[in-house]
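Sequence, structure tokens quoted for completeness.
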Amino acid sequence: MTGLVVFVAILLWGAKPVKRTFREAMSPDATLPWKGFFILWVFLSHFGQYASLEEVCGKHTKIVCGILGQLMVAPFLFFSGYGVMESIREKGASYLDSFPRRRILKTLLHFDIAVAVFAAAAWAQEIHYPPSRVALAFTGWTSIGNSNWYVFAILCCYLFAFVAFRPGLDGLPGWRFLLRRIPLTIILTGCYVAAMILCGRWDYWWNTVFCFPLGLAASAGKERLSRCFEKSPASFWTSLSLLALFCVIVRNPCGIFDFHRPWPTFMEMPAVSLAFVFALAIVSMRIQIGNGVLCWCGEHLFAIYILQRIPMNVLKGVKYISETPPVYFAICLAVTAVLAFLFDRAMGKLDEVLGLK
């Protein structure tokens, strides 16, 4: 329990009460530390696949990771959808014209370079994968030791946004245009979910993806949401309480509630993830988190996410390190930070050369 308390204290260091609008709570500066907050939980969760979390942060940390599950990555999809819609509203057709190159291709390029590093690491460890698996790993469909499903999912979400919003858009989009196109992204996301189920993919490939179109909708309706919460404090607390209650009842952490579920269990995580990210946005209207560590991690979110398994994979084979989880954890964390910094610096220069900035 002590380890969990220390970890959470570090994450929440610098937090303070605030009063801001929904729009302000969803600004890049406000969401950046939340990205850092959750990517560190993702790091903990992934590390638990290689060594005992109990020996690093105590058994309660493992329990919290189990309760959160896919909810750790749901905010990333929500914030990404919100950011895409903000750019569409501010820049319109000009933004979408460059979207395939500066968003989709750029993300895939960065991912593929990271996959190449994993391939080199596997070769150095004399781990051999079938050529077809290696080739598909560059699309995100398979893995060669790297995390892959999220990148595949977000690339599909980007494609859905482009398909839904680019046709027929000339200049800046109006409210009616957005109202017509957001349902199309939801339909396309539903098709993605159906395809993943038919392909036999694990549920984590699809059970949080609807957070992306929810982010689109939140941006489109941010003015109305801000007015609603500002005019009626009761609506703020009622919404937050109902969303939190919904998450607790449906997620049912540690089996608190013993009751028959009248709904299909496969619907639980998609529903909870939507409630969770919206509740998080509401909480951010009254609580501001942020310190140097969280902001730095938020800035290097993608690199931390995609590279963290390299030291975990490599050091797993070093007996005197992997058998001492606290040392293993500290080295993995430090190496991941260095790799993320170097990777983002290199990608920044590459993007300038290729005109992807």
The mean pLDDT is 90. The two ends are 44 Å apart (CA to CA). The first strand starts at residue 16 and ends at 17. The chain is about 75% helix and 0% strand.
